[in-house]
Design a protein that fits this description.
This protein is of the alpha/beta class and about 575 residues long. Helix content is about 40%, strand content about 15%. The protein has a single domain (about 5-325, about 345-375, about 505-565), classed as FAD/NAD(P)-binding domain (3-Layer(bba) Sandwich), CATH 3.50.50. Strand 1, helix 4 and strand 2 (about 100-105) form a beta-alpha-beta unit. About 50% of the residues are buried. Flavin-adenine dinucleotide (FAD) binds near residues 85, 130, 502, 510 and 539. Flavin-adenine dinucleotide binds near residues 88, 107 and 447.
């Protein structure tokens, strides 16, 4: 297994690294643990006790920190219900269990993972949802904090190149985190390598700033921001430019402008309306690398499922929640498949707007106020095709660029139309993993970003299928010759399927759009503004969509609940 480390790591400021335990630390932690354990025993909190190194510390801290000495309900007696088993819901459930709560999950579908989904057909395995893993250290915390090692559950490897970029004029450029390799790619099209270097330094500074508060502290409100950052630091977020304006100010060629603009794909927004600080995204890839999960990304869900079984978290599959019940100013539980289940705290992994609308049936004025601020991010057309051949020119991840990317963004995000000439993402996991396709064959996941569903003027499945033909035309014309002739299996998912399967708002795939004008890239807060014991997790709340962000959100919402519940 390749364990690559980005060379950019050494060059750019790094954020605080997780504590690497040594014997001295263990001795110290064990001592603190024993003291806390004694204190804890006096209050007799029955909580989950993790196995392995450091467990005395965790057990003691948990007993001391979580047991009630006031006669209030103990944390271990408090029940949290999580609505939805997407990655955000799973992360929240695991983190709350680690904090001592009794946790149950209710999921409408027959399997966990939500948009992290898989399709296995005719010897091909497709990631129906995410195919790029970034920031694996955020996932590792779920295992570390349970006294386990992620490597025992999920096998990951770094990819080279990160992506291959195809342009209409035949130019092909690869992305590498190693500066000398990246410089060679830049020189191919006359982009001075120092421009890329300068841009990535700018990106790293923005990432460190964003990570320090917005990500790691789970900041939700302006007041929290002002307190954490202070007025002066706030301006370091490059507040007065769009993402594209900042990219264009650093990079000279159309090729690299298009490539770095398209990093906004990670959150399904437009580089022309997203704020400049979204240029922090390339650092996620260039500093922390881009990863594949052996066997396909759904193995993340299977690894988490094993962890949850070990932690005693109960999951009710095929259980759609139809209502969240209220008692005065609080929520009292949920109704799933016609049965009421009481809870002290409810966490919704169903997105904010659908949850308020469908589960709490809040009035139209309230919903309209949310819709104004929290417009959905884009949706996508997911086209999975199994081929009877391989295309050697493809890398694992590929982007076929629009000849007019500004128009692509305008069509999807302003006019809400299917783009004439979209930028298309093509994943060929068979380049890395021989288990996902028959020998000598490729399996491709093709994903153009397209507008979310407009319920006033909805497109039909036939409209989307006509658009699919446009995609196939473009790929054939850009070098995947005779693609249609080599298809032996095809599966198409439209925004209508995405909404029906995950109840995402208007079929969005990344939660809420990041827009300078609508929300300055802020999403909804994690704690309900209406009911104090009702919380949200996932792409529609801060810090937003993408796998690592919703996993971080799950950890942060648990922290928030513990602090609120104290
Ligand atoms: C095609 C596609 C490609 C993507 N590519 C990437 C990528 O490469 N890298 C990346 O990091 N991210 C990617 N993403 C985004 C990423 O998948 C999401 O941001 C993330 O998985 C969302 O997790 P979540 O927990 O917020 O929501 P979801 O995964 O949507 O989970 C919500 C869960 O709640 C359940 N639910 C909803 N309502 C109810 C109810 N009333 N009762 C019971 N259950 C309910 C749903 O069934 C679902 O299981 C992609 C997404 C898609 C769709």
């Amino acid at each position: 297994m390749l364990q690559a480390k980005s060379v950019f790591d050494a060059e750019y400021k790094t954020t605080r690294k997780p504590l690497q335990p040594r014997w001295g630390h263990y001795t110290c932690l064990t001592f603190i643990g024993i003291c806390c354990d004694k204190l804890g025993k006096m209050t007799d909190a029955a909580i989950y006790i993790p196995q392995g190194s450091g467990s005395v510390y965790r057990k003691g801290m948990a007993r001391a920190g979580l047991a009630s000495v006031t006669g209030k309900k103990r944390m271990s007696d408090k029940k949290v219900i999580v609505i939805g088993a997407g990655l955000g819901g799973l992360s929240a459930a695991i983190s709350l269990r680690q904090a001592g709560y009794a946790v149950e999950i209710f999921e409408k579908n027959a399997k966990i993972g939500g948009k992290l989904n898989v399709l296995k057909e005719h010897g091909y395995t497709f990631d129906l949802g995410p195919s790029i893993l970034t920031l694996p250290h955020i996932f590792e915390r779920l295992f570390d904090r349970s006294g386990r090692k992620m490597a025992d559950y999920i096998h990951i490897r770094a990819l080279r190149p990160h992506w291959r970029n195809f342009f209409e004029d035949g130019v092909t450029l690869d992305l590498y985190p190693e500066p000398e390799k990246m410089a060679a790619e830049a020189r191919k099209v006359g982009e001075p390598p120092e421009n890329i270097h300068r841009f990535l330094k700018y990106s790293a500074d923005l990432y460190d700033l964003t990570n320090d508060g917005y990500f790691e502290q789970g900041l939700d409100r302006w007041q929290d921001f002002a307190k954490h950052y202070g007025a002066f630091t706030f301006f370091q977020f490059d507040l007065f430019r769009s993402m594209h304006q900042a990219v264009a100010s650093h990079l000279k060629t159309r090729y690299f402008r298009d490539i770095f603009d398209f990093f906004i794909k990670y959150v399904g927004s437009s580089a022309y309306s997203a704020p400049a600080f979204m240029n922090s995204i390339p650092t996620i890839q260039f500093r922390y690398d881009l990863w594949y999960v052996d066997g396909g990304l759904y193995n993340i869900a299977l690894g988490l499922q094993r962890l949850m079984n070990e932690l005693g978290i109960q999951i009710h599959l095929n259980n759609e929640v139809n209502e969240v019940q209220r008692e005065g100013a609080r929520v009292s539980g949920i109704v799933a498949n016609g049965t009421f289940h009481a809870a002290d705290i409810v966490v919704s992994n169903m997105e904010v707007i659908p949850a308020y609308e469908k589960l709490l049936r809040e009035d139209r004025t309230f919903i309209a106020s949310l819709e104004k601020k929290y417009e959905p991010a884009c949706s996508g057309l997911v086209l999975d095709i199994g081929l009877d051949c391989q295309y050697p020119q493809l890398a694992h991840h590929n982007f076929f660029f629009s000849g007019h990317q500004k128009e692509h963004f305008a069509a999807v995000f302003e006019k809400h139309q299917l783009p004439e000439d979209p930028t298309i993402y093509v994943v060929a996991a068979s380049k890395t993993d021989s288990t996902v396709a028959p020998v000598g064959c490729d399996c491709l996941k093709i994903l153009p970003h397209i507008p979310y569903i407009d319920d006033a003027h909805p497109l039909t499945r036939e409209d989307y299928l006509r658009f699919k033909e446009r995609i196939m035309d473009k790929l054939e014309h850009m070098g995947l010759t005779d693609l249609r002739k080599h298809v032996v299996f095809e599966y198409v998912w439209t925004p209508l399927d995405i909404r029906a399967n995950y109840h995402s708002n208007k079929g969005s795939i990344y939660g809420v759009v990041s827009s300078r004008w609508k929300n300055l890239a802020f999403k909804a807060p994690k704690q309900s503004t209406l009911y104090p014991n009702f919380f949200f997790v996932g792409g529609s709340v801060n810090p937003g969509g993408g796998m690592p962000m919703v996993v971080l959100c799950g950890q942060n919402v648990a922290k928030k609940i513990v602090a609120w519940d104290r």
